[in-house]
Design goal:
It contains two helices and seven strands, in the order H-E-H-E-E-E-E-E-E. It is an alpha+beta fold. It has one domain (about 1-100): Mannose-Binding Protein A, Chain A, CATH 3.10.100.10. Strands 2, 3, 4, 5 and 6 form a five-stranded mixed beta sheet that branches. The chain has a two-stranded antiparallel ribbon with strand order 1-7. The longest helix has 13 residues, at about 15-30. It starts with a helix and ends with a strand. It is found in: Secreted.
Length: about 100
């Protein structure tokens, strides 16, 4: 997230299905295996919101039984290419690729 700030942006925040389809296509074309998006529940467990603006998150694309907050500390969202671009909650310290937006 700090890199995005240095270039005048933020982690991409997904507002709807169509926006996510565009992002998914870009990620597949660049062969991203997993990548971060700007959604978190670090401010309130289970209350998923936009990471930068802290606005309400209304669109979700969770995989199976996600989010599961495994271990009680999965507060960030990764997109998993091998799971059909579905979302998984994950510990925020994992080093994945990420997508910024302005």
């Amino acid at each position: 997230m700090s890199f995005c700030k240095t270039v005048g942006g933020k982690l991409v925040e997904i507002d709807n299905y169509w926006e996510f389809q565009v992002l998914s296509r870009m990620a597949r074309n660049r062969r991203f295996p997993n990548f971060w998006i700007g959604i978190t529940d670090m401010y309130s467990e289970g209350a998923w919101q936009k990471a930068t603006t802290q606005g309400r998150q209304s669109y979700f694309n969770w995989y199976g039984s996600e989010p599961n907050s495994h271990g009680g500390y999965e507060n960030c969202v990764e997109v998993k290419a091998r799971r059909g671009m579905k979302w998984n909650d994950r510990a925020c310290h994992i080093r994945w690729r990420f997508v910024c937006e302005k």
